[in-house]
Amino acid sequence: MPRLMSRSIIQIIDAADRAVAQVEREQQGTGFTRPGYAGAGLAEPRRTAFQVDSLTFQSAGPNHLLARITGEGTPELDDVDMLEVLLFLSGARVDGRAMAEALVGRFGNLGGVLNASTGQLRDLDGMGEMTISMFKAIQATLRRVLRAPLEDPITIGSWQALVDYLGLDMRYERVETLRLLFLDRKNNLIRDETMHRGTVDHTPLYPREVAKRALELHASALIMAHNHPSGDPTPSRADIETTKQVQAALATLGIALHDHLILAARGITSLRSLGHIGVK
């Protein structure tokens, strides 16, 4: 998992844990019960206190994982560990470890789980609305965190920020999706739009549509990006030819095509770096 993503999730987990604790404090004496226990006719699990630095936590869940998250530095938790913690914090009425392993088995990794649709998550036994909402909130938060560096001009120095931002969603998409990032004369991001969503191996791309939208947004340049659900980021002949057509259409309007990125589970490819986009 990318270090930035790991730090962001840790911050979200910490905030979520504080919010849950606050709600429980406010609801004391009002008949409130933690989801999945007394409200479902079950006995509350025995809670165990454990110490991390100067804080004491009361937990019925994966104490050793929570302790590592709240300790100093960035914990080296794998995807199953992180999902087990999230399931616990969401109050899911499941065996957290078994469900975390099932989620990784179904969607491949943590990124795939967070990018799964609400419908796909609801299809799994034991996945409650609170857990699904937490996953979607984390995904939306990560998108905002990773988008922030793009508010500055997109330069070689922010290339990794661009890749991280696009990769959060696109590397784990189950169907081909075309994204366009429209830029102004200083390479500031004007708009990030999903142009098309296709099938598992194809999404339509019409150069005139791209050029028309760039004019509507008064863009001076753009970056194209699409994913390969197969996991292989190698460009197809159609990818290369379509890219050249888009570049030609934009060039007639004085608009630059900076790059076309192909994102997949096994990597990311830049068509400019492969020499398929000419430097004007």
Describe the 3D structure.
There is one protein chain. The protein has 2 domains: 3-144, no CATH class; 152-270, Cytidine Deaminase, domain 2 (3-Layer(aba) Sandwich). Helix 9 (207-216) crosses helix 10 (237-251). A hairpin with a 2-residue loop joins strand 6 (256-264) and strand 7. It has helices at 3-27, 63-70, 79-89, 96-107, 110-115, 118-122, 129-147, 159-170, 207-216, 237-251, and strands at 48-52, 55-59, 177-183, 189-197, 221-227, 256-264, 267-270. The strands form 2 sheets. It has a 5-stranded mixed beta sheet, with helices on both faces. It is α+β, with helices and mostly antiparallel strands. The chain is built from 10 helices and 7 strands.
Write down the secondary-structure element order.
Answer: HEEHHHHHHHEEHEHEE
Per DSSP, the total helix count is: 10
Q: Tell me what portion of residues adopts beta-strand conformation.
A: 15-25%
> Based on helices, strands and strand pairing, what is the structural class?
alpha+beta
Number of domains: 2
Sequence of strands across the biggest β-sheet: 4-3-5-6-7
The radius of gyration over CA amounts to 22 Å
**What is the distance, rounded to the nearest whole angstrom, between the alpha carbons of the first and last residues?**
37 Å
Low-confidence stretches: 1-6, 29-60
Number of distinct beta strands: 7
